[in-house]
Amino acid sequence: MPFTSSGPQWSFASPTADYASLVQQIHRSLYDLNVGCDFVFPSTQDFSAYKLLIVPALYIADDALLQRISDYVKNGGHVVMTFKSGFANENSAVRWVRAPGPLREAAGFSYQEFSNLEHPLALKDDPFHAGTENQVQYWAEFLMPEHAKAIAWYDHPFFGSWPAITENAFGAGILLYEGTYLSDKLQTAVLRGSLDKVGLTGPDQQLPAAVHVQHGVNRLGKRLHYYFNYSSTEVKVSYAFGAGTNLLDGKPVAKAAQLTLAPWDLAIVEESAAGTSALSKPN
Fold first, then answer.
1. Does some domain include residue 6?
2. 5 is a domain residue
3. Does residue 106 sit in the same domain as residue 23?
4. pTM of the model as a whole
5. Would residue 13 count as lying in a domain?
6. Per-block average pLDDT, block size 10, for the chain (283 residues)?
7. Residue span of the structural domain in which 247 resides
């Protein structure tokens, strides 16, 4: 998937809430948060290896797949799911039961109606502190919570009767559901919150937006940390791992030291001792 060096820009350029733009938005948010991810497929039988499962617009799915997602939550998994999920079966036939079909118990709500949005709407009281990007667009499902908790509402005299985002504790896990198309900043904030809950955030998620980091281990068993500055300005970052050496200039780097990255520059830090520090959790 392609990325731009300047990062995502807030806009509603796409004419509809299409699946491709939603997947790209979510993947870009994870990229900006310095979080790696895998793609799993409908044939995957066991999601238990993952602490967090992100499900964008799973419009067509058989009952068995939706049941596996529900069981994953019940057994302690965390899910972030978006609108239009659970709507039609594997034959693209709309289910005769209320949406979201077999996910209803895990999601903690049902709905029968939905609407297109002609103009962007704000969320009441800016719950994710998105400022000018506290907006949603394109699509709104009239979610009726049964035992889910509403965590965001539309700021609108009509649509405000229904929550925009819900969160439901089911069994040992949690399913968070977005009933509308979020702005880029809102999406990133929602994902960051879910990552926090499952312990998948660390020092990498505190880095400036332009800086991306990867980690590895060399043949000597020493940990390597690669810092990339994808911007045209100098950036200073805090190095959070074991003491080592910047392999590009030979200078020592202490834990908690400031790394200075010139425009479009990088640093590669090799820890001095083998296997003495843990990598950040998401990577």
1. no
2. no
3. yes
4. 0.86
5. no
6. 36 64 94 93 93 96 96 98 95 93 96 94 97 96 97 97 98 98 97 96 93 95 97 96 96 95 97 63 43
7. 204-274
